[in-house]
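Preliminary data (for renewal application), zinc ion complex.
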Amino acid sequence: MDYQTQIERAAALIKQSSGFYSLTGAGLSTESGIPDFRTPGTGIWENIDPIKTASVEVLENDPRLFYEAAFNRFAHITLAEPHAGHYALAKMEEMGYLKGLVTQNIDGLHVKAGSRKIWEVHGHLRSGYCQGCKKRYSFEELVQQVELKRIPPLCRNCFDVLRPDVVLFGDPMPALFYEAEDTLRRNCDLMLSAGSSLVVYPVAYLPALAKKLIIINLMPTEYDSDAEIVIREKCSKTLHDLAEELSRDS
Ligand SMILES: [Zn+2]
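Predicted structure:
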């Protein structure tokens, strides 16, 4: 099947679907210039073990190391901008096709691009909170304290350590993950997985909840043999072309 035929058939499946959802992963972010820590040789964690820095254990036992190593990488991610693929998914939702979006990405680019029904199951970089009294802070507040060398940043109420709203190594999955899982189990008849290698559990269980599957990923995934359509192309181009195809005669 050539690329154009794949796009047309994917669009046809989406139009027939009554419960179309998407799952997105690091492949979308890398096209916005954010390195994928799981790709050998290019990863942001190449020189540093993520378990040793971006983890609950480090945050609790050595908050200075957490803020000097992991946090600076997070802060850099907030500078990224959405690409055509993020906008295409927002457009599919606006057109009434896409019912919701589950993302493993913490960069917030789907929100920036205008997606509304979204489960950011690994958290995001828009806010943080105090580990002691749970008072909420903007992510910017954490960044400002770090820039002023107040490491780790502390709560103004109780002087406990602040942390970003991302799921760190060692954190449990947030309640919204189970909400997403439940919604997919009840409603999803078609899932579009874009830019996810589908190896990080429990998110990698989610495609099994869909009746039909479309996969866009540069590398093979374990679900390829179960999918109706597998497109080995960049997410930005493919999602853009798919949204164009859907808007052509809708
Ligand atoms: Zn506090």
